[in-house]
């Protein structure tokens, strides 16, 4: 993990803009994957509307730092606001729906994602409708201007490290244990005195918080947002990132994001056949490794044990 | 006012028939495998395009009797496609986890959608109507023969399915496997056979719905399956997923909610909520229903303790 920032620094210095942009997208999806993993991987709840939180974050930056309402707040503040708003939305959505189980929860979150998208499309006075919001401010963070893919690479790497450590520590904490109990058997978990609804709500909020933060960075990176970026397909990509990489494993999110962003780029030469081949590749990967490429057991804790020679 | 309500009811029945036909495919698959078959909506699109190609090849575009033949062949072709999808992409994953087949279904949806695009083209296609044209006036409401035919075709197919599932030997096997695949295999029923049958009938019905839908609106696009599929799935949940009468009820109910909601919301809210929120109605209703009646309208009420699945995914 310590190697990642070093590699990123080297990559940032030497790679041209196009691969750097792809690298940025990989990192962004890895962070989104880490966030969604809290819900899907740790708590075992399928959220098919994760993109809603991402959209809330993106629109926070688009509305609070552009000519739309002529508000120009600093990036760090909006990052906090966007993530918090998304977290709040997560709690508000979670309170009624977390009593539901499995598939119903999946469908309600899917519906929530669609509702957010339709709202963005139709609240013309606020979101500018399908045209989206263009000419968003350039982001400045502590006197450092974020404009090139290289700048965002450093920001995203920093975020990735923070989120990675955070998510890993959660996994090892009492909350993480409670979450895995909920995942394996809700009734037994309740029997052990775990307030399952509360635990799920915390997971939901944390996950939404991370999604919102990613949204802010995405909007700052693109400097343009429109409802088109936040379709159901986007939610599915994030679910695929963690399922293909390995559910409940932070390394899995990194690997999954790399594959899911890289494969379409590599297939770019095939133009019209690209998505067809992409779909086939997804099916083949899932058929070959139904439980994800990296198993849950081989997480960061396992790596630390290996490196520490059996200690830890 | 009476005529307006009647008109809306007829519109609701038309769109509801189509939702119901597609919802049947989702609900049957879910009832047996507890799998959301994301590829179903793309098979609906494929059905519309295959119907179009057949009509061109046979030279019977826009003819109602030809339409019957086209519908039949399309049913069989798309049904076979559905069976192959299950064998290739879902069967090897049975018993691994619940997420894996679902995401595999998603991959298949992408594959089918793009295959349709590559063969049928990116641009919307003008669709010849296989339905009789003309309108009649019923108490001031304008009813087209198209709408009547769509409704009748849907009702005939639904009754046929109901009879097939409840009155035939194969139907008993399907119900037995849906109830409990292991127990069914103990009494000599091959679950794979029943599952293949479901994957033949469901997509077949969806394909017919695709032809009806495109004939009604006069256009077919390779992306049209997604939104319709989502709504049909909503309808299946609304009625209680896994239940065949539930899917039919859910389909018609969703058609009604959407049609009346879209027509009256702008009036009731003084124009604040306009028709552009049409697609939200479906989901808002769904969220509300699930909160108060999680098993859907006709779904079985399963107590927490008797759930086979302790964990969600």
Automatic annotation (TrEMBL), chain B:
<dbReference type="GO" id="GO:0015808">
    <property type="term" value="P:L-alanine transport"/>
</dbReference>
<feature type="transmembrane region" description="Helical">
    <location>
        <begin position="68"/>
        <end position="90"/>
    </location>
</feature>
<feature type="transmembrane region" description="Helical">
    <location>
        <begin position="148"/>
        <end position="165"/>
    </location>
</feature>
<feature type="transmembrane region" description="Helical">
    <location>
        <begin position="194"/>
        <end position="213"/>
    </location>
</feature>
<keyword id="KW-0029">Amino-acid transport</keyword>
<dbReference type="InterPro" id="IPR052157">
    <property type="entry name" value="BCAA_transport_permease"/>
</dbReference>
<dbReference type="GO" id="GO:0015188">
    <property type="term" value="F:L-isoleucine transmembrane transporter activity"/>
</dbReference>
<keyword id="KW-0472">Membrane</keyword>
<dbReference type="Pfam" id="PF02653">
    <property type="entry name" value="BPD_transp_2"/>
</dbReference>
<dbReference type="GO" id="GO:0015190">
    <property type="term" value="F:L-leucine transmembrane transporter activity"/>
</dbReference>
<keyword id="KW-1003">Cell membrane</keyword>
<dbReference type="GO" id="GO:0005304">
    <property type="term" value="F:L-valine transmembrane transporter activity"/>
</dbReference>
<dbReference type="GO" id="GO:0015192">
    <property type="term" value="F:L-phenylalanine transmembrane transporter activity"/>
</dbReference>
<feature type="transmembrane region" description="Helical">
    <location>
        <begin position="43"/>
        <end position="62"/>
    </location>
</feature>
<dbReference type="GO" id="GO:1903806">
    <property type="term" value="P:L-isoleucine import across plasma membrane"/>
</dbReference>
<comment type="similarity">
    <text>Belongs to the binding-protein-dependent transport system permease family. LivHM subfamily.</text>
</comment>
<dbReference type="InterPro" id="IPR001851">
    <property type="entry name" value="ABC_transp_permease"/>
</dbReference>
<dbReference type="GO" id="GO:0042941">
    <property type="term" value="P:D-alanine transmembrane transport"/>
</dbReference>
<keyword id="KW-1133">Transmembrane helix</keyword>
<protein>
    <submittedName>
        <fullName>Branched-chain amino acid transport system permease protein</fullName>
    </submittedName>
</protein>
<keyword id="KW-0813">Transport</keyword>
<dbReference type="GO" id="GO:0005886">
    <property type="term" value="C:plasma membrane"/>
</dbReference>
<feature type="transmembrane region" description="Helical">
    <location>
        <begin position="102"/>
        <end position="121"/>
    </location>
</feature>
<feature type="transmembrane region" description="Helical">
    <location>
        <begin position="280"/>
        <end position="299"/>
    </location>
</feature>
<feature type="transmembrane region" description="Helical">
    <location>
        <begin position="12"/>
        <end position="36"/>
    </location>
</feature>
<keyword id="KW-0997">Cell inner membrane</keyword>
<keyword id="KW-0812">Transmembrane</keyword>
